[in-house]
Design a protein that fits this description.
Strand order of the largest sheet: 1-2
Helix content: 55-70%
Oligomer: single chain
Structural class: mainly alpha
């Protein structure tokens, strides 16, 4: 039988302990989330009492907090009970909870009032293995808004481009002169053809046509 070195034995035992602790943490985290979700659900249902708007429930959060704290100790103060209520209200479908996230993650997420934004941060947290501190930093830096702005940005259309004074300079036109969009577009095409000829590139056949879109219409020009 092959002898196991002291260091190898240590590494093997350490790995077993590490895996066991991770398993215990996952089970504990899932149980905690489910418990808090169920408490939040009971609080909401008790407050609503079947009505559309929440009114006085059978027990106020203050009374409930006092009794739970007396029975189970810390962890059930009024603020945390309100968090549990918000948890259920934001994530009303229990099976949709992501157990890769901790309670600290969720406390950050249910403060967001935009579902798409919440889903973005959930996906990014899981994909990038963000800690709750990482998630908070990303939220504070408006990561979602920056991504959304990037997706919504589109190239300028020809109408806005033609307002650029550098375009007029490129065409040899004074910016204060009045030209129609069609005249400016024609000047652009002529300038490009001249540029190609100077570099020995055959000009594009006049028979080839290309539509240049503006805010008002599409003009058909040789190009």
């Amino acid at each position: 039988m092959m002898e196991i070195s002291e260091d190898s034995l240590f590494q093997s035992v350490k790995e077993i302990i590490r895996q066991s602790r991770e398993k215990v943490f996952r089970i504990a985290n899932s149980t905690l989330l489910l418990t808090y979700w169920q408490i939040g659900k009971l609080i909401v249902e008790d407050e609503q009492q079947g009505k559309e708007r929440a009114e006085y429930g059978k027990y106020t959060l203050k009374n409930l907090s006092q009794k739970l704290t007396l029975e189970f100790g810390k962890g059930f103060d009024e603020n945390n009970l309100r968090n549990m209520r918000s948890f259920y209200q934001t994530f009303p479908i229990c099976d949709a909870l992501r157990h890769e996230l901790s309670w600290t993650h969720y406390r950050l997420l249910f403060k967001i009032d935009n579902t798409q934004k919440i889903n973005y941060y959930i996906d990014e947290t899981i994909q990038n293995n963000w800690s709750s501190r990482d998630l908070k930093r990303q939220m504070n830096s408006l990561a979602y808004e920056r991504v959304l702005k990037h997706k919504e940005s589109t190239p300028e259309n020809i109408h806005s481009v033609l307002k650029d004074p550098y375009i007029f300079e490129f065409l040899g036109i004074k910016a204060d002169e009045q030209f129609s969009e069609k005249e400016i577009e024609t000047a652009i095409i002529d300038h490009i053809q001249k540029f190609l000829l100077e570099f020995g590139t055959p000009a594009v056949s006049p028979k080839r046509r290309r539509r240049i879109k503006t805010n008002h219409r599409s003009e058909q020009n040789s190009f």
